[in-house]
Amino acid sequence: MVVVVSVRARALSLLTTVVEETTTKNPARFAVVSNFLAEFHGGVSSSGLSLVATLQRRSADEKSTVRKSGLSLIKAVIVFVIKRLESTGQDVQSKEMQLLLESLEERTSDSVMTIRKQSLEVITELVLAFPQSSNLWSKWQKAVFPSITDRETAIQDYCVSCVNAVLIQHAP
Length: 172
Fold this sequence. Notes:
The protein is an all-alpha fold.
């Protein structure tokens, strides 16, 4: 069982690396990754699951290492898709994007503190990277403000720093 968990987590981490490197460092792979992620807009893979459904399942996995890797991949996919759609002038608001953002928001109330913190970190980084996205702003508000009253003081402090970073330091 432990091997299966580490394989799931490692597979998600490797895919995250490929998507992130394609987005930032290796545009030559852009077409290949675009084709792979084409199912993001509702397609279904040979396994019968959409990419979004797979990411939702992995971000809610029973093992925290898999959830953590799933959150990283969600962030990478969202960044990739937003940049791809913005470059073509298409609208970044879609049902699939909403589902991924909801997965991020749900993880802010995870039972594991590191998962809660990572989900807050991811949504904050996305808002800072794409401040024009009303979807991101809405999800950021729904995720960060309630977490200010988290049972862990580390999360409370992190939320305050997120609010500071987004609303005070990067105010329009």
